[in-house]
Amino acid sequence: MQLYSTTRALPVHRHLISILRNVRFYGISSALLNNKDRKSAVVPPFATLDPQEISDSQPGKIYNLVQGKWSETSKWTEIVDPLNGQKFIKVPDTSVGELSPFVESLRSCSKSGLHNPLKNPERYLMYGDISAKAANVLQHPEVEDFFAKLIQRVSPKSYPQAVAEVAVTQKFLENFSGDQVRFLARSFSVPGNHTGQLSNALRWPYGPVVIITPFNFPLEIPALQLLGALYMGNKPVLKVDSKVSAVMEQLLRLLHECGLPPTDVDFLNCDGLTMNTFLLEAQPKMTLFTGSSKIAEKLAVDLNGRIKLEDAGFDWKILGPDVQQEDYVAWVCDQDAYACSGQKCSAQSILFMHENWTSTGFVDKLNVLAKRRKLEDLTIGPVLTVTTKRMLDHIEKLLAIPGARLLFGGNPLKDHKIPDIYGAIEPTAVFVPLTEILKDGCFELVTTEVFGPFQIVTEYKKGELALVLEACERMKAHLTAAVVSNDPHFIQDVLGKTINGTTYVGIRARTTGAPQNHWFGPAGDPRGAGIGTPEAIKLVWSCHREIIHDIGPVPNSWTTPSCT
User: Deepest of 33, 78, 103, 204, by most Cβ within 10 A of its Cβ?
Assistant: First the structure.
């Protein structure tokens, strides 16, 4: 049954759809709208959850997907609502004893994958069609709104931040519609040494793979990595942080309606120890891990290096000596540090201000912008991996450094019901002198990533850029960075001596932002993974295979040579 028209909706249609939002869906069977399981007219037909209705009295229920079938487990994990502490979603708590179907399913895929340039190539076209249909569905306002509100429920962030995830995912699917999936597998040939010899370079899948993604982007990160793995011919097992797995479960249901074979992807919900057991038993040929550096390093050992990583980022921003557009730069700094409550791997962790910026009252501008953020619109909200106490304790340790001072924030949020297992503090900035940062002992403390609304601010003077670059060199994570300057010589000096994989440059430079139109990923690590672009997909989800054809003919004059 076709849920949506497969004809691409034009902008005028989008306007019409928005008017009809509470009346009916564009191209949807009215029988589906009357389904007794639908709690409101704005819930898409593929969905089994209503973001506005799930609660402790009506908890949502998530399922595993294995061997093409949705399944339950003997035990469930009850997810706590980050905003009020109520148990509002039940997620499978898969035990070690329940892993066998997942292990068998993954092992059923050969090393040559579900498709490759020489096997089942029609599947490249199939995924182009799936992408086109899914992109069409995601651009409908009702569906966009559904996913944005579901994201807000499980990983609270402002509506513009949540809907941006949906928009990036939709555009990514659009980018890989039609023939674009098979173009990912484009090969090249090199002439041989004699007639009949030709070497062919092919992009080859790994076959059985695993994807492990975090909570902070419940749709964008797992969706883009999952689709990239599928495009290249792999069979993935997807493991998303259980706190937010509801989002990807619903997207999988959408993709099934758009033609995704149910057996192509398995969806596993379990705790970390159980997942580690699964990895050791199933032995995937490649694993993509996005998350903490500590877990990343453990998995790299456990999996004997068969892994790609997009791990933690302590991301820096340097304000150059050419001061201009102060209000705009301050706004970007506020967004980089505090949007999504600082829970982005690309969030601005440290700000190096040239003294010329300090004299303009730049910090006061940051303070004013930070104070605009409020829990009511989720421009500030719960921190899902760091408690309030841990963040305040970290601030206290920093303030013990000679010359350090609190610039703003530093207090717990008030008048809320966010449970104690999560964090809730004001947007915070702590100033630490640059010379103190570089001291042994202090450097490790200052460059500890706090995955919340927190940043370090420091100042450098004329002639001290070398100290800033020394700090950048000593940092261990090299994900994103920003050089805020239009001075070409300054930019060239900084870029030539740093390595961050995604670096923004110019007066509009930022540290955050992982759209579908450019590479996003770390540099300086051979295990580094990218996301979003053809280059990222080919790097992460395929390997190079060289096939040399040598069909002759053998020259008539050939005789057996002497042995060598």
Answer: 204
Catalytic residue among 142, 310, 426, 449: 310
* Tokens at 226, concatenated: 């999952």
Alpha-carbon distance 46 to 155, whole Å?
22
CA angle at 109 for the pair 106 and 113, rounded to the nearest 5°: 125
Active site residue 345: yes
Beta-strand runs (E) in 99-183? none
Inter-residue contact 321 to 354 (CB < 8 Å): yes
The span from the CA of 428 to the CA of 433, in Å, is: 17
Backbone phi, then psi, for 103, in 5-degree steps? -65, -45
Cis peptide before 553 (omega within 30 of 0): yes
- Annotated catalytic residue 144: no
Confirm whether pTM is higher than 0.90: yes
Asked if residues 150 and 217 have their Cβ atoms less than 8 Å apart, the reply is no
Contact in structure between 221 and 245 (CB atoms under 8 Å) = no
Angle at CA 173, nearest 5°, toward 171 and 179? Answer: 120
User: Residue ranges of the alpha helices (H) in 21-138?
Assistant: 30-33, 100-107, 122-138
| Residue closest to 340 by CA, chosen among 508, 168, 218, 248 | 218
Confidence at residue 112, expressed as pLDDT on a 0 to 100 scale: 98
Does residue 18 carry a pLDDT above 60?
no
pLDDT, one tens digit per residue, over 443-490 is: 999 999 999 999 999 999 999 999 999 999 999 989 999 999 999 999
Average pLDDT, the chain: 92
